[in-house]
Amino acid sequence: MGSRRSAIVIGTRGSRLAVWQAEWVQAEIRKFDPSLNVTLRRIKTSGDKILDVPLAKIGGKGLFIKEIEEALLTGEIDLAVHSMKDVPATLPEQLEIMSVPRREDPRDALLSHTGAKLNELPMGAHIGTSSLRRQAQLLHHRPDFRVEMLRGNLDTRLRKLKEGAFDAIVLAAAGLKRMGWTSDVSEYLLPALCLPAIGQGALGLEARRDDGFMRDVLAGMDDAPTRIAVTAERAFLARLDGGCQAPIAAYAQVSDDTLTMEGLVASVDGSHVVRDAIHGAMASATQLGRELAERLLANGAESILSEIYGRA
Predict the structure, then answer these.
(1) Which fold has domain 7-101+202-222?
(2) pLDDT single digits (tens) 25-74
C-alpha cells in the first residue's frame, strides 16, 4: 500500500483525443477517491511538433511519449495516459504500465469522401494514412491505390478529407468512437483485411515503478483480458525489434483461458506479406507472442525486415 497523497497530476498530449482519454482516466480516479485533487498537464511531444515528415524517418512511435515520460521521471507528473499503440516495446527501467483498461474497438476505419466502401473506391484512389502498416495492407489488397502520408491529429485528418485532399483516409476506430465521430465512417475494416497495430484501441496508464500509491489507485482500472492480449502483442513486437519503420501488425483476443493471436510482417509496398496465427493458454501470453514472431521470421519476415532496416 503506497503512502496517501491528496493530489495527482496526469500528463497527456494536447490533442482533443488525448485530452478526452486523460479526462476519462481523471473521472475514473475520482470515482475511486472523490477527495483526490486530479489535474491534467498538457505536454507537447516531439511527435506533435514534427508533422511534415513520416514517423519512420524521425524516430518512430516513441516520439509521442518521450517528453511525457521525462516529466514522469522528474516527478513533474504522477501518471501518463498513452494510446498503447504509441508505446515502444521497451520502457525506461524506472517506469511501468500499471493499468490497461478495457480495450475499445481495435479495428481500422475507412472514411471516404463519397461514402464509398474500400472495394467501391475507383482505380487509383488517393488514400491518406500515417501508418506503413496500413499502407502495406491496403496496397496488398489493392495495388492500384495511391497511398500518401497523412500526419496530424484526428481533427486535422478529418478536415483534409472533407476538403477533398484525399478520396479516403484510414484511422483507428477507437479514437473515432471515443470522440463520438463515427457518423462519417464508410466501413470498419476487418482484421482479416487490415490487421491492427500492436495495442490499438487500448490505453496504457504509466507511472513510476516505485509509486505504490498510484499502483493502488490504478489497480481497479486494469482489465485482465486486455492486458493479457496487449502483453502478447507487445512480446511479438519486441521479438521483431519493430517500430514505425516496418509494417508490423498483431491482434490478440482472450476467450475463457485461451489466447488467440494473428501476426503480420509486410514489405512497405505490400507485395510481400507473411502472416500466421497462434493459440494457447493465456498464462503463456509472452511466450506465445515470441513464438508467433519466430514463426514469421522463419517464414520470410526476416528477409523483409532486413531489407527495410538495411541489414546485411
Answers:
(1) D-Maltodextrin-Binding Protein; domain 2 (3.40.190)
(2) 999 999 999 999 999 999 987 655 455 555 555 455 566 798 999 999 99
Each residue's pLDDT tens digit, 105-157: 999 999 998 999 999 999 999 999 989 999 999 999 999 999 999 988 898 99
DSSP H or E run through 47: helix 46-49
Q: Which residue has the cell 507473411?
A: 274
Give the DSSP letter string of 239-296: HHT--TTS-EEEEEEEETTEEEEEEEEE-TTSS-EEEEEEEEEGGGHHHHHHHHHHHH
Question: What is the pTM assigned to this prediction?
Answer: 0.91
Tracing cell 511527435 back to the chain, one arrives at 47
Architecture of domain 108-189: 3-Layer(aba) Sandwich (3.40)
Pairing mode of beta strands 79-83, 7-12: parallel
CATH 3.30.160.40 fits 233-309, yes or no: yes
Q: Which residues participate in catalysis according to the annotation?
A: 86
Q: Locate cell 500528463: which residue? A: 11
